[in-house]
Amino acid sequence: MLDIENLHVSIAGKKILDGFSLKVEAGQVAAIMGPNGSGKSTLSYVIAGKPDYEVTSGSIKLDGVDLLDKDVAARAALGVFLSFQYPLEIPGVATMTFLKAAINAQLKARGEDEVSIPDFMKRVRAAAAKLNISQDMLKRPVNLGFSGGEKKRMEILQMALLEPRFAILDEMDSGLDIDALRVCAEGVNALRSKERGLLVITHYQRLLDYIVPDVVHVMSKGRIVRSGGPELALELEKSGYADYASEAA
Amino acid sequence: MAAVQETVDKVKTLDVDAYKYGFFTDIESDRAPKGLNEDTVRFISAKKNEPAWLLEWRLDAYRRWLTMSEPKWARVDYPKIDYQDLYYYSAPKSAAGPKTLGDVDPELLRAYEKLGIPLREQELLAGVQERRVAVDAVFDSVSVVTTFKEELGRAGVIFCPISEAMQTHPELVRKYLGSVVPVTDNYFATLNSAVFSDGSFVYVPPGVRCPMELSTYFRINEQNTGQFERTLIIADKGSYVSYLEGCTAPKRDENQLHAAVVELIALEDAEIKYSTVQNWYPGDSEGKGGIFNFVTKRGDCRGDRSKISWTQVETGSAITWKYPSCILRGESSRGEFYSIAISNGYQQVDSGTKMLHLGANTSSRVISKGIAAGHSQNTYRGQISAHRKAVNARNFTNCDSLLIGNKCGAHTVPYIEAKNSTAQFEHEATTSKISDDQLFYVMQRGLSAEEATALIVNGFVRDVLQQLPMEFAVEAQKLIALSLEGSVG
Predict the structure, then answer these.
(1) What pTM, to 2 d.p., does this model score?
(2) What CATH number corresponds to the domain at position A187?
(3) pLDDT of A39-71, one tens digit each?
(4) Measured between alpha carbons, how far is B290 from B293 in angstroms, rounded to an integer?
(5) What is the pLDDT of residues B135-156, one digit of tens each?
(6) Centroid of chain to Cα B309
(7) Number of domains in chain B
(8) Which of B440, B451, B467 would best serve as a mutation to test chain A binding (most A beta carbons within 10 A)?
(9) Which of A42, A76, A160, A207 could form a disulfide with A16 if both were Cys (CB 3.0 to 4.6 A apart)?
(10) Does A105 touch chain B (CB under 8 A)?
């Protein structure tokens, strides 16, 4: 599935990832925890292909396919999905329109036919119902004026509809109250499958009570410094990140 | 979304220099000698078989024009126009009097076909639902074929070339021509008054709701031919008409001058909706060539409770100098201006509106969306004024600019003058950029950079697109993506 080897990344001359390596198997849920400034968000952006980051060495492969020479859209079509920590607003574009454009763009990239309107409507309604997303929300412009919880539910809705091979959840719990967190986590858990890999990036252990990972990695100063099972998260909750303190705030 | 998709596909098959409408049709033309003098004006007037008063009117305009100079206040920069190096009249030869499509020069019909003008009735009728579009096709300067005349005639609506209206309804033309845009109005309008070739004339009688959308397609075809269209639309008491104007022009190297005048008159309780999609040749990727578009469009809400609404989608031309305006004379009359102005490459747009509140309880609404990409400069210039008698005048203006890339410019120049204390004017303006984060977000969901930009821009202009008649909304959406071609790194 996802195979990152000895990745070195900098932005504006500053090194963020420093020899980062990670393997996530199909069917696995991996959690990455770490203090602020450890490079967690950079990692998610670099996997998704955000420009501005300079990859000086190393590789990222999905199912053996090199991602680094592909642009953002091409990686998405290969099945990379990123649930944003801060989803962007797109004024004037109805959420439904956006969802359909995204699905069709990916189908087209894979050489498949566009989704039929009735099929699309059916799938959206079913997925939205599970996430407590109203029809009204679907008609509103993408993320515009949505609460933090609504934005995160909308991210999970997109993930459910796009059915990615590999999904990254970047700080999904930030800005969520406990009820919203539960709804989102249930949505994510419903998408766990043998074929799909998940990377859960979080600062707090709380999220991992709801999305129980198979492995937990601790990240500090741009690389993984410790790995273990779900119990590692609990340990961190008690001891904090003091032992892994990052130089870069 | 399908429309956006289609556009994007289309964009991919083109490049900036391969402007789709850049073909040239060779038709032997009957044109006036090069240059402008009183004889040119007389030649045009004679060609049109005009009454003496109109020739005098033209000559008067010409003499005044000689004393005027080009306005310099707009934020546009272009090489000096040599007015003596232009032809002021050209007509396709076969236009001497074709009665049916069969009589029309097949070369012309082929040109229309390339343009996709739905000239034939059956093609029109094959259109969407019950709607019908009557087309008064302007090829260079002479209107060749007018369709749907009969049905309009039954409703009492007059829709014909203005040159024909001079002959058939001289009293209407004489009463209203120049009554909204006076002969002395401005340099380009005065020039137009002297040498205008043809254009559309519409009269809707009292109480009549025009049974179809009226449409004219303009096309500039002849080398070195300035285009001086003149359009006059009168909506009599309690009537309604919706008029669509759309244009393309063939590719050429020298700049072409276009100075049209459009006058609208709405009497008591009448409503005129005027929509434009303008897609003239904008020049090549180096900024060479392209149309100079100096247009004067003005509507007069002459009667109480009358309404005039301008909607424009401006994507073409090298220079756009255009301010469709409303004179709100009648009590409780209303003016609206909805605009999308897109500039790319080296295009320069200076466009906006004037809402002149003269009567009591008049209201107006201005929604302008400017999008600048490439090396272009995009200026909104608007004037809102309230006369001292315009008690309770209301205006709402919203003026948004969107920048794509970092070599273009967006400018907003509002003039607001209230001469009585009961007027309430609101002005909102924003300038934003399509952010890299926004593009990244949309592309992460699978859309290419071009698709993502088209999606975001279509969202940005949605408020205005909704104002367009359905026939144009889809076309406009395509044009928007098409004109942003090459704007994304």
Answers:
(1) 0.80
(2) 3.40.50.300
(3) 999 999 999 999 989 999 999 999 999 999 999
(4) 9
(5) 555 554 444 445 566 778 889 9
(6) 13
(7) 1
(8) B440
(9) A42
(10) yes
